[in-house]
Amino acid sequence: MRGGMRRLTVLALAVAPCLATACNEYPVERCAAGEGIVFDDEGAPFLGAERGPVELTVFGDFQCPFTRDLMLALGALLDRLAAEGKSGKVRVTWRHFPLSIHNRARAAAIAAAAAARQGNDAFERLFWHLLKPGAELTDEKIRGYAQLAGLDLQRFDADLTDDATAAVVDRDVALGRKLDLEGTPGAILCGVPVEGDASDVAGNVELLADK
Fold first, then answer.
1. CATH for 90
2. What's the rounded Cα separation, in Å, for the pair 55 and 167?
3. Residue 59: what are its φ and ψ, rounded to 5°?
4. Contact 108/62 with Cβ under 8 angstroms?
5. Domain containing 82: what range?
6. Which of 14, 82, 103, 205 fits as disulfide partner to 36, beta carbons 3.0 to 4.6 Å?
7. Sheet arrangement for strand 90-96
8. Strand 90-96 versus strand 192-194 pairing type
């Protein structure tokens, strides 16, 4: 998660032209490498394919119910694609954007960043445990989730208090602010910021993955 954003110029080509009577219901109709907002995702944690033609970046808050809805919808989609032999189609890159209104969001973000230091598989195993309301994200419960996820607890405990782990979260937050994000989830699909509820965003990803 040390990568940042290489380019912030959104190119018009990222979204296909849309006529009044022939408009696709989704804002992103194709993915083309190098168009729109381009991130340097070297080392960033992800779900799905390590490299895939359909790339979705999510700036999320583990305590946010809307982030939770989106990620659960995307998780179901990734499971479906894997069952159909299309597991290499979609990469969902996670960026931390804990909101100040959520009292345990930053603690959960730091826990996820600490897990990522043990590898992407470790991050993914812990990730799903952290999509919970604040009452389920106490320090004790987070450590229990880490144990359930099979993490090296001694290393996890050390990484939780390492300034370098918090710096990962802070870099993502700074990146989100450059994009003028105000809430979560913030979704950027194939370089194009997209809005809507969980079914809207996941539906657009599914459309592109099935092409």
1. 3.40.30.10
2. 24
3. -90, 110
4. yes
5. 5-209
6. 14
7. 46-48, 90-96, 54-60, 186-189, 192-194
8. unpaired
Residue 164 identity: A
> How many residues are there in the chain?
211
Cα(143)–Cα(19) distance, integer angstroms: 52
Tokens of 44: 């960033």
Q: Which residue is listed with tokens 């999510």?
A: 58
Half-sphere exposure in the Cβ direction for 37 (13 Å, CA) = 20
Number of compact structural domains in the chain: 1
Q: How far apart are CA 175 and CA 172, in angstroms?
A: 5
Cis preceding linkage at 185, omega within 30: yes
pLDDT over 60 at 16, yes or no? no
Nearest to 63 by CA among 183, 147, 162: 183
Does residue 160 contact residue 142 with C-beta atoms inside 8 Å?
no
Residues 120-147 have pLDDT tens digits of: 999 999 999 999 999 999 999 999 999 9
